[in-house]
């Protein structure tokens, strides 16, 4: 039995907040002032709802994480019984946070909100400054309004969607004049002129009489002997792109390429994305954003394939690789999309006709289209990239003999010991560790922040992660423009020297396609 404490604030996170944040949210709710605490209330009705969420693969990760945590602290006996049947147990979880588990009626909607408000008022109103229901769900905001508890969005999870435009920012005439004289300036001087923070691998765009000119923020990165950790940053500068770069030719190391597997950048944004993000070995985490028709899938696809191909001996040396090893920069590509049909718990593909590839094909349409646009379509069908060169896998195989030794553009070969593309479901990533792998995360705005965190945590040495998305195209009911894996991860990683961000602003589809963006209709 324990005496009831006084709390600075009482938080009641709704189930959607647990789904979005997992156990990370407790760190945000902790009170950091000395000798003060906050309290998190967990009604049994919310626990039941979380249990239901774990049955749906699209948003199970956060719910599973929280339920597993609750089970652990109860089994470990980290709870104190309270001499009140209305309050089952409390947990002294963090120095500045307690958790209380309380029974609640089986009611839903308005009755549940009223029940919670009554219990909080009865047992804690005299012991806390404020009681707050945290939820991102508009329905919960409406149902809880006027029920006696303050309602707030989980602001610690929210990120302004405009953050996707931070990769290429606009410069001033004053800065352009100064940088033209010297071609490069110390980052500290540029930061002072623009009166804002700048990041390594960020670009500054200047409007000139003819077109845009670009400058790049760069630095010398010092690494440990194995090359797996950045240990220091020196010579942070801002430099104008070379005039020849406006021809949009691509280099990987010293290897010159007029195109990447038949695809040429159509504008400077696409060039910057390819040269300094997708194909840049120093950028281990690259965010490529843009609306439909901007080219993000096409560019990411051809760049990813190029990085797993192994080139002829002399070209491997030009690309900065060990020319004696017949390998690419990465062993294979892992493709992740936020859809249960990629192997989720419900296995919805089972009712569809055809083999596994035929069932997945509708969800791979953008990649099949990208394959057809590239020169790869002249060499092999897309499905061959899913097959292992030596063994059978879920898609059949092994790889057809006619494609095992095929030479692409008379320069490069498919990986000899792995599929080119492995498709998996994000829920199956937990427990895996990736090495020397390129992870391609599509439609990241439909992953929750917790799901994307879980994926990135799996990366080991020699990995690169390419994250694609558009915060305006959110379909996951647990995500929104303000809370999603794309913008949340950008905010967390944008200042890291190994990351970069580019948003493609042009729609290269038809004028009808571009005009459809302003057509305000929604799906179920």
Offer a few descriptive terms.
524 residues; alpha/beta; Rossmann fold; 2 domains; 7-stranded mixed β-sheet; 17 helices; 22% strand
Could you please describe the fold and organization of this structure?
The chain folds into two domains: 7-157, Rossmann fold; 250-505, Rossmann fold. Helices cover 29% and strands 22% of the residues. The two termini are 49 Å apart. The protein is an alpha/beta fold.
Please summarize the sheet with the most strands: 7 strands, mixed
**Could you say what the CATH architecture of the largest domain is?**
3-Layer(aba) Sandwich
Strand segment count = 23
CATH class membership of the largest domain: Alpha Beta
Strand order of the largest sheet: 3-4-5-2-1-6-7
What is the count of distinct domains? 2
- Give me the Rg, rounded: 26 Å
CATH topology of the largest domain: Rossmann fold
Helical fraction equals 25-40%
Structural class: alpha/beta
Low-confidence stretches: 341-348
List the total number of helices: 17
Distance between the termini: 49 Å
CATH superfamily of the largest domain: P-loop containing nucleotide triphosphate hydrolases
Which helices and strands occur, and which strands form pairs?
Blueprint: E1 7-13, H1 15-21, H2 24-29, E2 38-43, H3 44-53, H4 61-75, E3 80-81, E4 89-94, E5 97-102, H5 109-123, E6 128-134, H6 138-144, E7 150-152, E8 168-170, H7 173-182, E9 184-186, H8 187-194, E10 203-207, E11 212-223, E12 230-240, E13 250-252, E14 255-257, H9 268-278, E15 285-290, H10 296-308, E16 310-311, H11 313-318, E17 332-336, H12 356-360, H13 365-373, H14 401-404, E18 407-408, E19 412-413, E20 421-424, E21 437-441, H15 449-457, E22 464-469, H16 485-493, E23 499-504, H17 511-516
Parallel strand pairs: 1-2, 1-6, 2-5, 6-7, 8-10, 15-22, 15-23, 17-20, 17-21, 21-22
Antiparallel strand pairs: 3-4, 4-5, 9-12, 10-11, 11-12, 13-14, 16-19, 18-19
Helix pairs in contact: 1-4, 3-4, 9-10, 10-13, 15-16
């Amino acid at each position: 039995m324990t005496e009831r404490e006084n709390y600075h604030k009482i938080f009641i996170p709704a189930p959607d907040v647990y789904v979005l944040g997992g156990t990370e949210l407790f760190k945000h709710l902790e009170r950091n002032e000395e000798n003060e605490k906050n309290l998190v209330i967990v009604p049994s009705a919310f626990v039941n709802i979380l249990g239901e969420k774990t049955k749906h693969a699209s948003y199970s990760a956060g719910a599973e994480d929280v339920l597993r945590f609750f089970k652990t602290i109860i089994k470990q006996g980290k709870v104190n019984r309270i001499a009140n049947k209305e309050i089952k147990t409390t947990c002294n979880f963090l120095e500045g946070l307690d958790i209380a588990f309380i029974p609640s009626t089986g009611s839903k909607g308005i009755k549940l909100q009223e029940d919670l408000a009554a219990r909080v008022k009865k047992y804690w109103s005299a012991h806390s400054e404020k009681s707050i229901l945290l939820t991102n769900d508009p329905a919960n905001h409406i149902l809880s309004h006027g029920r006696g508890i303050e309602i707030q969005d989980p602001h610690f999870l929210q990120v302004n969607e405009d953050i996707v435009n931070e990769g290429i920012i606009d410069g001033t005439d004053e800065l352009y004049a100064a940088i033209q004289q010297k071609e490069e300036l110390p980052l500290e001087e540029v930061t002072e002129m623009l009166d804002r923070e700048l990041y390594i691998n960020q670009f500054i765009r200047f409007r000139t009489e003819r077109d845009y000119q670009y400058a790049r923020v760069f630095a010398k990165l010092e690494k440990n002997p194995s090359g797996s950790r950045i240990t220091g940053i020196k010579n942070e500068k801002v430099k104008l792109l070379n005039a020849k770069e406006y021809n949009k030719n691509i280099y990987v190391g010293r290897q010159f390429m007029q195109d990447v597997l038949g695809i040429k950048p159509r504008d400077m944004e696409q060039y910057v994305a390819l040269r300094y993000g997708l194909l840049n070995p120093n950028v281990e985490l690259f965010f490529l954003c843009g609306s439909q028709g901007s080219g993000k899938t096409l560019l990411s696809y051809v760049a990813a394939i190029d990085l797993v191909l192994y080139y002829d001996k002399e070209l491997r040396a030009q690309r900065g690789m060990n020319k004696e090893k017949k390998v690419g920069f990465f062993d294979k590509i892992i493709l992740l999309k936020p859809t249960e049909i990629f192997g989720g718990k419900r296995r919805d593909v089972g009712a569809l006709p055809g083999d596994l590839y035929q069932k997945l094909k509708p969800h791979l349409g953008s990649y099949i289209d990208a394959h057809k646009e590239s020169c790869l379509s002249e060499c092999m069908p897309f499905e061959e990239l899913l097959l292992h060169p030596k063994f059978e896998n879920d898609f059949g195989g092994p790889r057809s003999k006619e494609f095992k030794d095929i030479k692409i553009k008379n320069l490069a070969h498919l990986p000899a010991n792995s599929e080119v593309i492995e498709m998996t479901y994000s829920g199956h990533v937990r427990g895996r560790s990736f090495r020397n792998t390129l992870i391609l995360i599509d439609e990241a705005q439909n992953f929750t922040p917790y799901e994307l965190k879980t994926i990135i945590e799996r990366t080991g040495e020699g990995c690169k992660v390419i994250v694609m998305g558009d915060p305006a195209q959110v379909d996951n009911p647990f995500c929104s423009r303000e809370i999603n894996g794309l913008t949340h991860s950008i905010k967390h990683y944008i200042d890291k020297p190994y990351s970069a961000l580019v948003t493609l602003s042009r729609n290269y589809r038809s004028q009808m396609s571009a005009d459809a963006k302003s057509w305000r209709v929604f799906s179920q």
